[in-house]
Amino acid sequence: MQRLALTIATIWRLSLPYFRSDDRWPGRILLAAVVGIELSLVAIQVILNEWYNRFYNTLQNHNWHAFVSAILFFCALAAVYTVLAVYQTYLNQWLQIRWRRFMTQSYLRQWLNSANHYRMQLLGDAADNPDQRIADDLQMFVQYTLTISIGLLNSIVTLCSFIVILWNLSAHAPLTLFGARIDVPGYLVWAALIYAIIGTTLTHLIGWRLIPLNFLQQRYEADFRFNLVRTRENAEQIAALRGEAAERERHLSRFGFVVGNWLALMQRQKQLTFFTASYSQASVIFPYLVVSPAYFSRLVQLGGLMQTASAFNSVQSALSYFITSYRSIAEWNAVITRLTGFEEAIAAGRAAATAEPAVAVVPREGATAFAIDRLDVRLPDGAPIVAAPHLAFPAGERILVTGPSGAGKSTLFRAIAGIWPFGSGRITVPTDARVMLLPQRPYFPVATLAAAVAYPAPAGAFDGASIAEALTAIGLPQLVTRLDEEAHWNRMLSLGEQQRLALARALLQRPDYLFLDEATASLDEAAEAALYRLLHQRLPGATIVSIGHRSKLGAFHRRRVELVPDDSRYRLREAELVPAAE
Question: Among 210, 283, 378, 506, whose Cα sits 20 to 30 Å from the Cα of 513?
Answer without folding.
Answer: 378
